[in-house]
Structure formats: structure tokens, C-alpha cells
Amino acid sequence: MLAIIAAVLFGLALIFELAGISLNIITSQVLVVGGLLCLALHLAGVGATTSGWRRARR
Predict the structure, then answer these.
(1) What would you report as the CA-atom Rg of the chain, rounded to the nearest whole angstrom?
(2) What is the pTM of this model?
(3) Phi, psi of 5 (to 5 degrees)
(4) Torsion of CA 46, 48, 49, 54, to 10 degrees
């Protein structure tokens, strides 16, 4: 899920940069940093479920 959020933030950053859009506090640089943070959390395993499907041992 965090990787999807990172991809959306990177896409928004690209659109902001190409269109020259800059809101009060939200700039393309802020979106890139947010995307990198989400990507780092994803690679660190934050939010990953480890319980998943388990087989019962007999």
C-alpha cells in the first residue's frame, strides 16, 4: 500500500513540476520527499502482514 501511495506522490510531483504549480506549502519537492518516505517505509516492511495464510501441521 505504501508503494502505491509513493507512486501517486511521485506522479503528482511530476505534474506539479511540469505545470509549474506550487500551492502554499505543497510543492513538487515536498511531494518527492513524501514519496521517498513512503518508499523507504515500504522497503523497511512497515505495514506488511506476516500472518498471512498458514498451513496447519499434522
Answers:
(1) 17
(2) 0.74
(3) -60, -40
(4) -130
Q: Which three cell numbers stand for residue 22?
A: 506550487
Supply the pLDDT for residue 41: 92
What span, in angstroms and rounded, lies between the C-alpha atoms of 27 and 31?
A: 6
pLDDT (tens digit per residue) in 14-47: 999 999 988 888 899 999 999 999 999 999 998 7
Measured N-to-C along each axis, helices 28-44 and 2-19 cross at an angle, to the nearest 10 degrees, of: 160
Q: Where are the domains of the chain?
A: 2-44
Residue 39 CA, distance from chain mean position: 5
